[in-house]
Design goal:
Layout lengths: L1 E9 L15 E13 L2 E10 L6 H31 L12 H15 L1
Antiparallel strand pairs: 1-2, 2-3
Length: about 120
């Protein structure tokens, strides 16, 4: 299983230090996990946790709903890319700076397949 943890959020300018674990503002922690199902499929799990404001529960719901919508949009693209990779095997891929993590993971998997 591969996974990624994300800690993000926002706070008003000048409201405190980002290094202070007790700082004010909105905090969101995310977990993303991918585990293979078959040679051509995988399960993708994600969850987020926040520090909801007692008077702004609608903001928490909005963040969760927008996160889910974003993943659904990504799913469409990722599945289309996978179909193209299957349709045109061996075609070179262009790596950009945001691909560092996936490219490292791909090299690890390729190394494991050789062993």
């Amino acid at each position: 299983m591969s996974h990624c943890r994300i800690w993000t959020g926002a706070m008003d300018e000048g409201a405190g230090s980002l290094d202070d674990p007790e700082r004010s503002g909105f905090h969101m922690r995310g977990f993303h996990g991918v585990t293979p199902e078959t040679d051509g499929s995988a399960h993708y799990f994600w969850t987020i946790a926040t520090n909801p404001h007692p008077d702004k529960q609608d903001v928490t719901r909005l963040v969760v709903d927008q996160t889910a919508a974003t993943f659904e949009e990504d799913k469409v693209i990722i599945e289309a890319q996978w179909q193209n990779q299957q349709r045109f095997p061996g075609r070179p891929q262009v790596a950009i700076h945001v691909d560092v993590g996936p490219n490292r993971a791909r090299r690890v998997v390729q190394g494991l397949q050789r062993n």
